[in-house]
Every structure is written in structure tokens, then in C-alpha cells.
Amino acid sequence: MLFVFAVVSGFTSNDPRFTPDNELIRPTNYREWIFLSSGLSMSYGIQPHMADKPEFDNVFVEPSAYKAFLATGKWPDKTMFILEIRFAETHGSINKSGYFQRDIVAIEAEVKDESRFKEKWAYVDFSPAGKLHDTAKPFAGDSACNVCHAKNAAVENTFVQFYPTLLEIAQAKHTLR
Amino acid sequence: MLFVFAVVSGFTSNDPRFTPDNELIRPTNYREWIFLSSGLSMSYGIQPHMADKPEFDNVFVEPSAYKAFLATGKWPDKTMFILEIRFAETHGSINKSGYFQRDIVAIEAEVKDESRFKEKWAYVDFSPAGKLHDTAKPFAGDSACNVCHAKNAAVENTFVQFYPTLLEIAQAKHTLR
Q: Assuming Cys at both sites, which of A154, B82, B122, B148 could form a disulfide with B30, CB separation 3.0 to 4.6 Å?
């Protein structure tokens, strides 16, 4: 049964993969990972950006990391998150108000790799200037992403405060900062 | 390998289960199913309900049905969807505008069972009057849910027009109505 477990949980196949020049390879199967939450036009600044062009953000985490988090309230090495940003639309089909999701705006990643990154966590934008790339170089360790996640995230560098099912786990396991 | 495949895809374990008096048993693992999309305060009526109490709706489908849809653009018998509705909040942690997800408001299901339901598809609300139940009786075949889904959904009785990744599949497989 060990083999079966390895196949199911994907411990090997879903680990972050890097090119020889240290670019993260964009995972193509993340829509089959575990969904954590969606937000609409969330903004951490004073200036809202809701009115002009609303966007959804969908957050997914690799399944074996999710299972580890359920058991421990912490993230194992090689954890990977994908942030998928999509245009929000109001008028379409029978929908008359509120918002539903349309085309992709951007795909970004957060990766925990303790041996590769001094800060343990790194951030990648696969879609700079609106074009989707297959690989991308992680931001430097003092990037705005690193600084904000390290300062404000609820569990290690991850915004568990915005993922309702994980927030319950972290509270139960006492792993909230 | 057949046994392994059955374990992975969950063909048996995730089929809709009913009590002896024909109530659908609420699946408890749906957050580990395939996420299709989220909307915010979507409304099909003239009257918007966004302003007073915004809500997110998250849609999940059982993984083996999802895999079948990727291959065919159609839903196999025993397909089950879960609609999870959650309160939307603006001010919390570092968020200053836009919306993120909080506690559950309601959990509903859509089930395809060709032998059990004359209309093939049935609709269930596990949370009438705001209380979450472990089982619930499907609505009658002429319910508002049945009528609206049968009339307006893009693929069979399902609102694929609001699920961007599935919409591409249905377009490619020519299964849109």
C-alpha cells in the first residue's frame, strides 16, 4: 500500500521543479489541487481598486502539503501555493448583479524550499506584463512579497487568516502567530 | 492497477448516498473535491442583494465526475456538485477593501441520478433556516431549482457558463446547449 499512497498523495510528482538557471516551472495541474479560498479585489492599501476593474483571486495548495497542514497546522518543506487571478464580470447569461469569474489575468506562486532560499519562502509571478510564461525567476528575498508575507501572514508566510477551513485547523493546533 | 485506479478516482466512495427514506447524505469531504469557481452575490433577479449582505458561492464537483467531463464534456450518472455559500467580509487583518470569505451560510447539492429521479437531476438544501443538517430530502421535480437549471444551464442542468475551465472543455467537445 505504500506505493499506492505515494501515487495518491503525489509527494514526488508535485514538488516544485526548477530549471537549471533556477526558474520555477509553472505547474499546469493546479486546478486539481486543493482550493483554499477566493477573494474579490482584496486590497491591503488605502486605495480600493474594486470600482474600475474587479478581479477574483483563487488560491490553491498542493494536496500533500494540505494533508500535512491538516495533521500539524504547519507547512512541510516543498509546499507550493498557486494564486490564480481572474477578471470578474457582472452581466452574462442570466446573471444580473454580483460577480462571476472569467479569463485569467495572472498566475503567481508561493514556494517553501528551505535549502534553496535563505528566507525559506519565495514568490514568483508567471505573468509579468500580462503574458503567461512557463517558467519564472523567484523575486529576490527582500521583495515586497517576501516582506509583507513575513510580516503579516498568520501561519509562517501564509495568509491563513483568509482561508476559513485552514484557520480552524491552525487555531486547533495553536500554530497561529 | 485497476484497484489502485478505483481508490484514486473514488468511483465508489464518492457516489451520492441516500438514507432509507430517500434523504441525500451530506458529503463531508467536498473541500477536497475539484473547485469549479466562486462568485460574489450573483443574482439572477432584477433586485441586487450585493449591498446589504454580500456572500460568496464556491462550487465543487466530485473528482471522478470532473475527470469524465474533461474527457467527454458531459456528466456521468451519479455526478454530484456542492454549492458552499459563505459570508463575505471587507475589513479584517490587513485587508482594506474588496471581499474575503468567512463562515458558512449554507451548503446545497446538485445530483445526477438517472434511475432515482425522473428529471435525472435533483437539488438539495442541507441548511434550511440557517441550520446545517447531515441529510436532506431533494426538492420535488418541479422545484424552482429544477426549472431554472433545466431552462438556463449551459451543459445539461449545470451552469458551465460560470465555470471558466469547464466552459473551454464544453466548447471544444461541442456539448454546450
A: B82
Predicted local distance difference test score (pLDDT) of residue B46: 61
CA distance B75 to B98: 34
- Chain A residues in contact with B165 (beta carbon < 8 A): 31
pLDDT at B94: 86
Q: Please report residues of B whose CB lies closer than 8 A to that of A37.
A: 100-101
What tens digit of pLDDT does each residue of A52-108 get? 789 999 999 999 999 999 999 999 999 999 999 999 999 888 888 899 999 999 999
Whole-prediction pTM: 0.91
- What does the alpha-carbon distance between residue A74 and residue A71 come to, in Å, rounded to a whole number? 8
**Cell 454546450 found at:** B176
Closest CA to B146 of B158, B154, B136: B158
**Which candidate, B5, B4, B10, places its Cα nearest to that of B27?**
B10
State the average pLDDT over residues A145-172.
96
Residue B143: CA count within 13 A, CB half-sphere: 16
Contact A108, A124 (CB under 8 A): yes
Chain A residue numbers with beta carbons less than 8 Å from the beta carbon of B99 are 39-42
pLDDT interval class at A11 (50, 70, 90): very low
Name the residue among B4, B43, B100 with its Cβ closest to that of A39: B100
Residues B84, B30: contact at Cβ < 8 Å?
yes
d(CA B74, CA B66) in angstroms, rounded, equals 9
